[in-house]
Amino acid sequence: MPIFQPELETLPRPQLKALQDERLREQVHYVYARVPFYRQRLDEAGIKPGDIRGVEDLPKLPFTRKKDLREHYPFGMFAVGREELARIHASSGTTGKPTVVGYTRGDLEVFAEVVARSLAAAGGEPGMMLHNAYGYGLFTGGLGLHGGAEKLGMLVVPVSGGMTERQIMLIQDFKPEMISCTPSYAQTLAEEFKKRGVAPEEISLKYAVLGAEPWTEAIRKSVEEGLGVRATNIYGLSEIIGPGVSNEDVHEREGLSYIWEDHFYPEIVHPETGEPLPEGETGVLVLTTLTKKAMPILRYWTGDLTFITREPAPSGRTHARMGQIRGRTDDMLIIRGVNVYPTQIEEVLKGIAEVEPHYQIVVSRQGTLDEVELKVELAEGFYRHIGAQMLSDEVVEADHQLSALRDKVAFKIKDNVGVSVKVSLLSPGTAPRSEGGKLKRVADLRRLS
To answer: Where does the record place the AMP-dependent synthetase/ligase domain (predicted)?
Structure first.
């Protein structure tokens, strides 16, 4: 399978290291001059830009965390003014405010370049058709894959997410060779084809590029068998650039994804101490952008637990490879590709007078899609009101009000957080309470292996 940029993807390690060092030095001087947040952080740490000579000096720098981005909403982390921006994307935040990221025209070129590398590694070639079922809009997935596919020379069908009937029809009529979507949605499409009596060998798809949520070899197997494809994992974060930070090679896989480390330098650190860990040990993935100009990020704490290896690879690429994500260090859930924090749910509940912000989120997987049940307590006053109606034989009216409240809560969660939930109403005092330790707001019953 051709490598998209062999001169860079197979660059000998000493030359790659020299390129990383040069780009890092430039980036540290750049952010110190242009981003007040970083100037203050480096000054507080007693670090001058000239102190950072190469990637081995990165541990001297403080981490950047998601809360830093939220606290500087919307544009406080940007290094350029509005007139230099070409695009803005955003991802979910914990209080209804999104995490905002920006791109210069040069950044969009880099974005397209790394996604093109990823698609080529996944089996894509110029002239192939990509059925892009990632969501378009503020989410980086749809437009990110689109730009990279065009850069590679592919024909893109910008289907976006949802509307499964339409997706099935277009795949059958247009006959694309590659699809990009979440792994759970790929499973859904496979089930829909099976219901219609369409065998995997009758489907035109040959390759699937899947990401935006955790998945495992068992899920890969079901997608490959159901759609007749070879599936690879694409990894990325909006804060770094979007999808295309890394991707598996379709002929190697084994859960190892190439990190395009001429643009994104990876570190693995201890989840509690933040100290660097040796190659091969599992810890938190930390990423530094080496070329991004609109919103450069130094030592971003992703919260994702994995390991990296720089052992020689069969493809001849010299870039580091990362293992499958083994978990997260924070409480974020990924539901059908959407980042969900319990505090987002709590903020919505605070605005509904009939309920209290005492709740539990139960996540399960029915078939191929995640299901979310929100158990929430009724407010004492509303609970007494409903009880009085029950006692006075106004049972139908009480049931009507409870049903309307469930619909109201579900609508507000969907509108503010972006996920559909089944709402169960609890009597006061029955939701889980803290017993001295951390309160477990989430019961994740999914089995990803």
So the answer is: 79-287
pLDDT in the model for residue 250:
97
| Model pLDDT for residues 313-334, shown as the tens digit of each residue | 999 999 999 998 876 776 678 8
Buried b (16+ CB within 10 A) or exposed e, 394-429: eeeebeebbeebbeebbeebeebbbbbbebebbeee
What average pLDDT is seen over the chain? 92
One-letter amino acid at 255 equals G
- Model's pTM, two decimal places? 0.80
Contact 137, 88 (CB under 8 A): no
6-330: CATH class: alpha beta
Residue 4 tokens read as 């998209």
CA trace torsion 346, 348, 354, 360 (10° rounding): -40
- Map residue 72 onto helix, strand or coil: coil
Contact 228, 203 (CB under 8 A): yes
Tokens of 81: 């003014």
Residue 156 has pLDDT above 70, yes or no: yes
Between CA 373 and CA 116 the distance in angstroms is 38
Do the strands 300-306 and 327-328 form a parallel or antiparallel pair, or are they unpaired? Answer: antiparallel
| Start-end of CATH 3.30.300.30 domains in the chain | 338-444
Strand order in the sheet with 300-306: 264-269, 283-289, 300-306, 327-328
Secondary structure of 327-353 as H, E, C letters: EECCCCEEECCEEECHHHHHHHHHCCC
Peptide bond between residue 278 and the one before it cis (omega within 30 degrees of 0): no
- pLDDT grade, residue 444 (50/70/90)? confident
User: If you search the block for the tokens 């803290």, which residue do you land on?
Assistant: 434
For residue 71, give every residue at least 6 positions away whose Cβ sits within 8 Å of its Cβ, in sequence order, or none: none
For residue range 109-153, what is the model confidence (pLDDT) as tens digits? 999 999 999 999 999 999 999 999 999 999 999 999 999 999 999
Q: What is the DSSP letter of 303?
A: E
**DSSP H or E segment with residue 102:** strand 99-103
Find out whether 236 and 211 touch, Cβ atoms under 8 Å: yes
The CA-CA-CA angle for residues 240, 245, 246, to 5°, reads 155
Kindly give the pairing relationship between strand 327-328 and strand 333-335. Answer: unpaired
Q: What topology is assigned to 338-444 in CATH?
A: GMP Synthetase; Chain A, domain 3 (3.30.300)
Question: Which of 321-345 are b and which e, b meaning 16 or more Cβ less than 10 Å from the residue's Cβ?
Answer: bbbbbeeeeeebbbbbbbbbbbebb
Measured between alpha carbons, how far is 166 from 159 in angstroms, rounded to an integer? 9
